[in-house]
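Run log, item B.
One chain of 106 residues. Sequence copied directly from the ordering sheet:
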Amino acid sequence: MHYPSTVEVLADEELLSSIDVLLRASHPPFDRVMTRLIDLDWRPNGQASAFILAMALFNKQYVHHREGADVVESMRLAQADVLSHPVISKVVAQTTGAAIDSAVRK
């Protein structure tokens, strides 16, 4: 069975168009969710809540970058924005550290 590489997938215009439509259409619901969470004085505290934050940030940044970049570049820029967010980078570091500790102890 052939699994397309990332490069091949990101070269498929039909797929990119569908991704673009999906991310743009999901922007208003993500915005409402984050607005409500902020109104509730929500603070991410763990992987699940950090994942919600990461999805919302990715979506927001994708739509923002899409104003001046193509779909692939917008996804790459949004990914970089998410990974550089302090809360997300802290969760990634903690998760990575825990995985390394677990592997070393075995």
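Observations after the first pass:
- The two ends are 35 Å apart (CA to CA).
- The chain has six helices and no strands.
Flagged for discussion on Thursday.
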